[in-house]
Known about the structure:
single chain, Rossmann fold, about 25% strand, binds guanosine-5'-triphosphate, binds magnesium ion
Amino acid sequence: MFAGEVEFLKGVVAMSGLPPADRVEVCFAGRSNVGKSTLINALTGRKALARASNTPGRTQEVNYFTIGEACYLVDLPGYGFANAPVAVVAKWQALLKQYLQGRQTLRRAFVLVDHRHGVKQVDEEIMSLLDSAAVTFQCVLTKADKVKATDREKVLDQVRAALARHPAAYPEIVLTSSEKGDGIETLRSIVAGLS
Ligand code: GTP
Ligand code: MG
């Protein structure tokens, strides 16, 4: 499916701006700077489709991408620290939560967690929100190229323990590096299997 035409559809700033709920969608959530936009670029094989940057708070809208007619990929603003005015951040945080709780066609949320840092309190809050909304979420560890070999298992255990606390968590964790390409094909087949 990723061989099909991939396009940016629109950036949404309010629930009323969401495109018609006429197909399956999957979204990418996670703390600011965890690598959501970069992962979408890696999945679609397009370097600058989703705008990524080293400044936390880069993505400030709910960004829709189409893969042919098959499904929507949704790049979300991050949560946690962001290098943006407080009022602006508050606005996108509210939209993020409304979106995660209220989008009928949201088939799965991928919750991205930095493999170096593991699951933080803010991730737990989003996971709890997804539990209450009954949206299945799957944890994707990012930046695997940056994690020290000695920390790898320790962080994985911490993530597994966190997921075990959340009924909406899909048990399989996907390890990725957008930089090196690890796990990207696996994630592509997961997304393809959902649409
Ligand atoms: P916000 O939009 O601000 O919430 O951030 P984001 O989660 O979309 O992160 P983004 O994709 O913009 O990436 C943040 C930084 O992490 C960029 O400098 C990326 O190049 C870097 N990055 C993302 N994925 C990887 C990875 O797998 N490995 C390495 N080494 N760096 C990565
Ligand atoms: Mg982003």
